[in-house]
Automatic annotation (TrEMBL), chain A:
Complex and partners: Heterodimer of an alpha and a beta chain.
Keyword Oxidoreductase attached: yes
UniProt keywords, alphabetically: Oxidoreductase, Pyruvate, Thiamine pyrophosphate
InterPro entries from the UniProt entry: Alpha-ketoacid_DH_E1_comp, DH_E1, PdhA/BkdA, THDP-binding
Species of origin: Lactiplantibacillus plajomi
The protein's name in its UniProt record: Pyruvate dehydrogenase E1 component subunit alpha
Automatic annotation (TrEMBL), chain B:
Lineage: Bacteria, Bacillati, Bacillota, Bacilli, Lactobacillales
The protein's name: Alpha-ketoacid dehydrogenase subunit beta
PANTHER family for the chain: PYRUVATE DEHYDROGENASE E1 COMPONENT BETA SUBUNIT, PYRUVATE DEHYDROGENASE E1 COMPONENT SUBUNIT BETA
UniProt cross-references to InterPro entries, sorted A to Z: THDP-binding, Transketo_C/PFOR_II, Transketolase-like_Pyr-bd, Transketolase_C
Statement: the UniProt record of this protein carries the keyword Phosphoprotein: no
Enzyme Commission number, as recorded: 1.2.4.-
Keywords: Oxidoreductase, Thiamine pyrophosphate
Enzyme class: oxidoreductase
Domain Transketolase-like pyrimidine-binding: 4-179
GO molecular function, one term: oxidoreductase activity
Organism name: Lactiplantibacillus plajomi
Lineage top rank: taxon: Bacteria
Obligatory cofactor(s): thiamine diphosphate
């Protein structure tokens, strides 16, 4: 009896889990075109615009990094390495879609319509940075890992109930975020309600210091959507066109009323978690980092377009200077923001002021008028 | 006017608001076809359809996040958390998210969400179904915590809460659901938020209570009246922020106060009331502020709950102690 085969072969089931996920790729790290039928859909001018988005994000990162070191910015989560994943996913969405970002998604938020100086004010901890105009369809950056996922399900259900055509909610988290309960609850709610949401997981390898392999026994993060009944895909997160095409298809699928989609982008956080003292040397090796650095998302489209004669070093330098000038102007604008007042804080706790708030407004009015 | 129980008054308020504002949405676990585990939402899905009144998957954090997203899309969500003991699963959505949104966005976005949840002891529920957790909620800036003690207020306060543009945590007392009946108007009416009510006038001592403890306090007041003692009873109704004026005015009149809560003593609403009186009304007092509360233990198992919950005789004893101080 002991040698009899068990009724279920759990080893075989486990070994098959997630095996069917193969990262989508359009152009490899050496600028070799894998899917010419995709690349040929785009003119060189369009591809230049895509490359410029990544150069813009890289420049924003470099300036933000420097400004943080000078003490001119506050909280900053470096984005270097994630330019294709961030810019392509966001470019595939419409500006009428609702974005629910986390704190590393500031570049997408800016491209979605947040003025750069407001992003800087948010970094410094100034509430003006979170005062969005009506037509900026986004929540402020989420700090609590995963909370944006459950809210995205709500926004998506609201879009469905309002009957708004061609509109989705889209949200981002990282590999660590997929371990949170809210990650699953958000996808499950959106799935149960068949609501138009696009869930992005930017798998950048690390949740601060904890590597992806320690987060879960799952072979892929994409397969986590399967339990919620949601279609999902893995994509080379260093490949702009691959992310863009996949995100665009996901958006169309969700906006057409087919329910939510989840996308795992395979990318890498080149720098530390934040600029507040994290040192990646404590938890990862040069040997691990180098192949990723060689896989820099800017390299392949820059090389491709340079080979095509559609992009040059001079053009890039000129563009970078222009971006730097814009950033400089934004810093100046952020510097000009008025000092925050306690009375204004108190006035924004409730719409109708209860007694405790009224009393404290009176107290602070006296102090502020001195 | 019709005679309605506390829970019928709640259903009434929900029906009226679902009927008058098509942006209101009612959702939670078992609130649809089943009408809620206590039938507070009975018949509402049949009347307003599955689009407006619907069951959610079983996940409280999801319910909280869903409410926030729906509010952002212009709806007025009325989620139910099936029992107050389940809020720990969704505290981030309440304390970390919706109550901060107006502040966080400099007043450019708001969250008109009313979370309903039953609570309170004395009905022999399983663990985590009866705890009085209002003290936790009361410390959250940007969130109102409201709890009625009778059918009239249940309807009027719930309508006010739903119409308010900020998040309200609306606590419904389990024991009062079917034990109280009163004549209440059939049409919609409001009872103001942020306002306590003197439910019985008196001159010798103020009993400051809320929810089921108001009714126990009223019984004590009636009993002491026969001895010629004039007891004033204040029903807080909104637990956070407190109506300081009404509390202080009452204490100024009587010079003596007892603050009463069903929750454990540590860091509760009664402590806030006592601190307020100490800070702003100490000179009105002829005696220390008394407090009635449950012991600082975890809520005990069913058979012991009647021994644990503050009873009428404890309120009476504390009232006499402060009167004779």
């Amino acid at each position: 009896m002991d040698n009899e085969k068990p009724i279920v072969d759990f080893s075989a089931i486990r070994d098959a889990l997630g095996k069917d996920y193969e990262p989508v790729q359009v152009m490899d790290g050496q600028a070799k075109v894998i899917k010419p039928e995709i690349v040929s859909k785009y003119s060189n001018d369009q591809l230049v615009e895509f490359l410029k988005l990544m150069i813009w994000e890289r420049t924003l990162h470099q300036r933000s990094n420097a400004l943080t070191r000078q003490g001119r910015l506050g909280f900053y989560a470096p984005t270097e390495g994630q330019e294709a994943s961030e810019m392509a996913s966001n470019a595939a969405m419409k500006r009428t879609d609702v974005m629910l970002p986390a704190y590393r998604d500031i570049p997408q938020l800016i491209q979605h319509g947040l003025p750069v100086y407001k992003a800087f004010l948010w970094s410094r901890g100034h509430v003006l940075g979170n005062e969005y105009p009506e037509d900026l369809h986004a929540m402020p950056p989420q700090i609590i890992i995963g909370a944006q996922y459950v809210q995205a399900a709500g926004v998506a259900l609201g879009i469905k109930k309002n009957g708004t055509p061609d509109k989705v909610a889209y949200t981002y988290t990282g590999d660590g975020g997929t371990s949170q309960g809210d990650f699953y609850e958000g996808m499950n709610f959106a799935g149960a309600f068949q609501a138009p949401a696009v869930f992005f997981v930017q798998n950048n390898g690390y949740a601060i210091s904890v590597p992806r392999r320690k987060q879960t026994a799952a072979r892929t993060l994409a397969q986590k959507a399967v339990a919620a009944g949601i279609p999902s895909v893995q994509v080379d997160g260093m490949d702009f066109l691959a992310v863009y095409e996949v995100a665009k298809a996901a958006r169309e699928f969700a906006a057409a009323g087919n329910g939510p989609v989840m996308i795992e982008t395979l990318t890498y956080r080149f720098g530390p978690h934040t600029n507040a003292g994290d040192d990646p040397k404590r938890y990862r090796t040069k040997e691990e980092e180098e192949p990723w650095f060689d896989n820099d998302p800017l390299i392949r489209y820059r090389k491709y377009l340079t080979d095509q004669g559609a992009w040059s070093e001079e053009q890039e330098n000129e563009y970078v200077e222009q971006v730097k000038a814009d950033i400089k102007a934004a810093v100046k604008q952020a510097d000009d923001a008025p000092k925050q007042k306690m009375t204004e804080f108190l006035g924004n706790v409730f719409e109708e002021q209860p007694q405790n708030i009224q009393q404290q407004i009176t107290e602070f009015q006296a102090k502020e008028s001195k | 006017m019709s005679k309605k129980t506390y829970i019928q008054a709640i259903t009434d308020a929900l029906r009226l608001e679902l009927g008058s504002d098509d942006k209101t949405l009612l959702f939670g676990e078992d609130v649809g076809k089943n009408g809620g585990v206590f039938r507070a939402t009975d018949g509402l899905q049949a009347e307003f359809g599955e689009d407006r009144v619907f069951d959610t998957p079983l996940a409280e954090s999801g319910i909280g996040g869903l409410s926030i997203g729906l509010a952002l899309e212009g709806f007025r969500p009325i989620p139910e958390i099936q029992f107050l003991g389940f809020i720990f699963e969704t505290l981030d959505s309440i304390a970390g998210q919706m109550s901060r949104e107006r502040f966080r966005t400099g007043g450019t976005r708001h969250m008109p969400i009313t979370i309903r949840s039953p609570y309170g002891g004395g009905t022999h529920t399983p663990e985590m179904h009866a705890d009085s957790l209002e003290g936790y909620l009361a410390q959250i800036p940007g969130l109102r915590v409201v709890t009625p003690s009778n059918p009239y207020d249940a309807k009027g306060l719930l309508i006010s809460s739903i119409r308010n543009n900020d998040p309200v945590f609306f606590l419904e007392n389990l024991k009062l659901y079917r034990s109280m009946k009163a004549d209440i108007p059939d049409e919609a009416y409001t009872v103001p938020l942020d306002k306590a009510k003197v439910v019985r006038e008196g001159t010798d001592i103020s009993l400051i209570a809320y929810s089921a403890q108001v009714n126990q306090s009223l019984k004590v007041a009636e009993k002491l009246e026969k001895e010629g003692i004039s007891v004033e009873v204040v029903d807080l109704r909104t637990l956070s922020p407190l109506d300081e004026e009404t509390i202080l005015k009452s204490v100024q009149k009587t010079g003596r106060a007892v603050a009463i809560q069903e929750a454990q003593r540590q860091a509760g609403i009664a402590a806030n009331v006592a601190a307020l009186i100490a800070e702003k009304g100490a000179l009105y007092l002829s005696a220390p502020v008394g407090r009635v509360y449950a012991p600082d233990t975890v809520y005990p198992f069913g058979l012991a709950e009647d021994d644990w919950l503050p009873a009428e005789d404890e309120i009476e004893a504390k009232t006499r102690e402060i009167l004779n101080y």
